[in-house]
């Protein structure tokens, strides 16, 4: 009896490894989930046929090879499921290994080092157990087919006939998971072709990076229409289009943006907004920042490393060459940032030198209002030459609990005022099991991040302030929804009408909230459009006021 149970368990394990679709955790509400398992795997049929036909001496080694291969594919499938849920795409076996380190660090900062170590050890042991378990399962099933060759042949023949019928009719009971399954073979093929694809992409990117319309532009011709202005680029973590299109989240974010428009207008500002398509989704913020700054499409770590090892003109470098003081404010950084030199920053502030003494809020080491208050104290509020700064706002970074409150700017101090706020909010392990509530908290965090920037501009911004605000990527699919776009809002705010006149031809919507018809550009297009609009030779187009 125990032997029969083990055999059934082995068959079930092999079957699940072959048929579970990678998109199983992203199914739409109302989909018949058991349909994901009602599939006939072609790879299982062919594997069984090979084992039946193999000579006795070769059967065991063949079964071990097939089991090990299936184990590797099963581990890859589990990783793909995780990547699809978090990043909206599959794992690239060539390019994505560094992301595991980033994931570990993010988990350590949100759940503690012990929790991160436990998760990492669990993942390694689980992967090993799955690979070994599948190898042993295939060996056991190989012995079974050897003992019962005739029934096994009949079963393989019947299953192959059924597979062909379902393949011809195209029967599907679960999205992207047809009953006649060959997904394991497709997974193996995709993994195999990633190597030459990565090599081709390296060469492709090298060629793309050589083309730069602004590489030889003299400093005297760069950003001439912004001379004398202070340009602050506010990067809002995880601020995606879903915050403005999902009915639940838009009901929270939309009114806050409308209130922000009124605040800015009362302070003499006007705004124009559009959309950018981010090069990443759910994470990998540095890829989006690099695309925005460089004018190149940076959607993987290989491209990022190629970029920062070169001398591409970034937006920051363009300002630096044209005579601006350039500052980076990166509260999420805990160690030295070598890429600052590539980008062209004169000064970088991070969690080590911003003077914060308050509590953490999930991943975010400090509330956005404190980040902006520190920037005000250390740079913008002092007498200065024209300043260009990129300020990253991290309060809208997952896990979106707890969300701090705005306080009086004079009361921010060293951040200890935030102590009581960090103690409230639902435990993240509970929150993330509630789709509606996690979306609500995400929306609240976006309201806080954008509201902090608007409040700072309202209070401290003078006639020479030009504020550029954009989201780096959409939040994970748990929040943004299955099949969400990669679009993020982008806004330019200024008091001087001439600044917005320069972009009147862009077709952007008035205010902080891009309209449904607002144009959508690739994030990598922004650098060239911005440098063109504000450089020598560009003529302003008067817009109605």
UniProtKB/TrEMBL annotation:
Residues 272-476 form the Sulfatase N-terminal domain. It comes from Krasilnikovia cinnamomea. InterPro entries: Alkaline_phosphatase_core_sf (IPR017850), Sulfatase_N (IPR000917). Keywords: Membrane, Transferase, Transmembrane, Transmembrane helix. The chain crosses the membrane at residues 31-53, 65-87, 117-142, 154-174. One of its GO terms (molecular function) is transferase activity. This is Phosphoglycerol transferase MdoB-like AlkP superfamily enzyme.
